[in-house]
Every structure is written in C-alpha cells, then in structure tokens.
Amino acid sequence: MARFAMVLWGIWFNRNQLLHKKCGRDPGELVYWVAGLLEEFQGTYKSLLSSLSSDSAVAKEGWHPPPLGCLKLNTDAAVPPGGNCFGIGAVIRDSEGNLVLALSKFVLGYFSVEVCEALALRKGLSLAKQHGLSIGWAEVDAVNVDTGVNSSQLCRSTVCFVFNDISALCRDVWVSECKAISICGNGVAHNHASLSVSSSRDHLWQGHCPFSLFSGC
C-alpha cells in the first residue's frame, strides 16, 4: 500500500512538473524514483525511532566549546517547503567560542531533507580541508545523518555516496567524533543556512561575522 500510494503521488508530482516546468521523468524511471524515495523514508524513520528510544538520544542543551586548542564544526541545512533550493550553513569555532571560519551557501536543486543535511556536513568538512584546518569535532542536528555517518551497516539509501565522502573527509581533517545535537545547540549554523536562502547568495567569513548570526547559539 505504501508503494502504491507513493506511485500515485509520483504521477501527480510528475504531471505538475510537466505542466508548470515543461520537464518530467519517463514512466519507467518514475517507478524506480518513487521506490527509492520510499526506501529512503522508511530507513530514516526506523533510524529516528531507534535513536529516540535509545539512551543516546540527543540532549536538549546549548552549544559547548571543544577542548583547549581544538576546533569544532557545526553544520545545518535550511530547506524551504516546496522549494527547489536550500541553504547550507557551516561554522568552525575554537575552544573559546571564537569564529574561525563560517560559510553560507545557496544551492539550487530539489533534494530530501536528509540529503541536504548530509551535503551541508560534507561542505563544512570540505571547507576545513580547503583551509588546512584539523577539526576535532563535527556536530549536526539531524539524527539520521549522524546515524548514517557512524553506522557500520551496509547503507542502501540514495544518500550513501554522500556518507562515503563524509567519512573520507572526516579522516582528512582528523575528526574524532561526529554526532547529533539538539537544534538549540546548532543555532549559529542554522542562522548561516537561513541567510543563504533569504539572500540567494554565498557568504564566507574569516575571524568574524555579523553579530546577528550568533544569536540563538
């Protein structure tokens, strides 16, 4: 029944794409596409239920600085409902909470929230590698991304290729731990992601950024 409902939704979505944007998928491709979306949703839902029922559920607390001499990366994605774009926010801070690097990136394309969150983490790690930084800790507010990155099980989701890139980048920038935190502990990264959506532009700061972006950290 779930697959049947997804196919019906896919036909309706494809019809709207053809009608309003003059582009769409072939019928055969459409079936495989909606099947992949369903598999991704079911996998994410199971991971979320598992994480909520475990003792390692994310604590509702604010941002904590890394140990002395270390750096921490926080990333987030802002995904407007029904849009064909999303924003990436990546913030690197030191043990005193001072800004080292911050990025807001505007991205065109329609992806699931899980993929957007994973791409945000990958971009943040790439930013650290590009500037030759060693990041001891990486944090996101998406439990499914944390699970996908740290899981030793075979990944069958469409986001697997991003998780593979993330794992490689974590080794490149010496990440010792990648974990999920509460939304209230990831506010600065969220502000940067939201900025890129509202401005439709990319921004890069080194050493400082507008004070308003540090609210709700």
Automatic annotation (TrEMBL):
Q: Which InterPro entries match?
A: RNase_H-like_dom_plant, RNase_H-like_EbsB-rel, RNaseH-like_sf, RNaseH_domain, RNaseH_sf
GO molecular function, a single term: nucleic acid binding
Q: Which SUPFAM superfamilies match?
A: Ribonuclease H-like (SSF53098)
Residue ranges annotated for the RNase H type-1 domain, each copy included: 87-194
The record's PANTHER family line, in alphabetical order, gives: BNAC02G40300D PROTEIN, REVERSE TRANSCRIPTASE-LIKE PROTEIN
Q: State the protein's name.
A: RNase H type-1 domain-containing protein
